[in-house]
Design a protein that fits this description.
By secondary structure, the chain is mainly α. It has one domain: Ferritin, core subunit, four-helix bundle (Ferritin). It contains 5 helices and no strands. Helix 1 runs antiparallel to helix 2, helix 1 packs across helix 3 and helix 1 runs antiparallel to helix 4. The protein is elongated and about 50 Å long. The two termini are 31 Å apart.
């Protein structure tokens, strides 16, 4: 994914869109899952809630920037960048209920893609403050990925 030409506002806007898309995808997994594994569904609910909260933190940070310096990314460009960053969210779940193995596979894919996204965002950050912000999120992503991989074992 190419993050380089984005200014701070558009970088934050893209992060907001990515986090909301992740939360929606996790809620979809929960809706498609059975009630046979309540601990997994609680874990996924917690992950979705954290992503929603993180999305709004990005939105608040974007709002503090004031008047845009350049043009804002539109829906088509945001969607293209989102699909490039997170190809797993366009995967089909099939007709069967989502069980533990399938859910954790998709969550692991999502975490890997998010870690890669925030690594790229950190390297392309338009300010030092944003770079530190993206690195902090990357550290959380790496921690969550380790947790999901532990659950897979």
């Amino acid at each position: 994914m190419n993050c380089n030409p984005l200014d701070a506002r558009n970088q934050l806007r893209l992060c907001y869109v990515v986090e909301l898309a992740c939360a929606r995808w996790l809620w979809l997994l929960i809706q498609r899952g059975g009630v046979k594994d309540p601990s997994l569904w609680r874990f996924l609910e917690n992950q979705a809630a954290q992503r929603t909260c993180r999305a709004w933190q990005f939105r608040k940070r974007e709002d503090t920037l004031g008047v845009p310096v350049g043009p804002l990314l539109g829906e088509p460009d945001l969607t293209t960048r989102l699909n490039s960053a997170l190809p797993s969210i366009s995967a089909r779940l099939g007709e069967r209920p989502v069980d533990r193995e399938i859910a954790l596979h998709f969550v692991e894919c999502l975490e890997e893609e998010c870690a890669r996204f925030y690594r790229e965002m950190a390297s392309a950050a338009s300010t030092e403050e944003l770079r530190h912000c993206f690195l902090a999120v990357l550290n959380r992503e790496d921690s969550e990925l380790r947790q999901v991989r532990t659950m897979l074992l």
